[in-house]
Amino acid sequence: MSFHPRMEYAPARFHKSERELADEGEPFVYSPENQAKFDEIVTHYPPEERKSAILYALYLAQQQQGYLTGAAMRHVAEQIRCTRAEVEDVVSYYTMFYTKPV
To answer: Would you say residue 77 has pLDDT above 70?
Structure first.
């Protein structure tokens, strides 16, 4: 005996996200000056709390190229040692980050 209502499983109706991913863009790496700034800032956090520097890392990438491409977000994820999805979540939440030229 089940207390759950009967659910129709077919035909399946799945929700499709309206979110668009950022354009992949050209390959991206920090300039030597920005890499040095990032390396200095990340030392302010314990290694297990490295994600705390994600806003600064994104700010540096946006400052360098004007907006954040998919390649820039991937680079930030590699620098922070997290997933690209975590970086995209932060970018999509804060209005100060641009994914297209302004």
So the answer is: yes
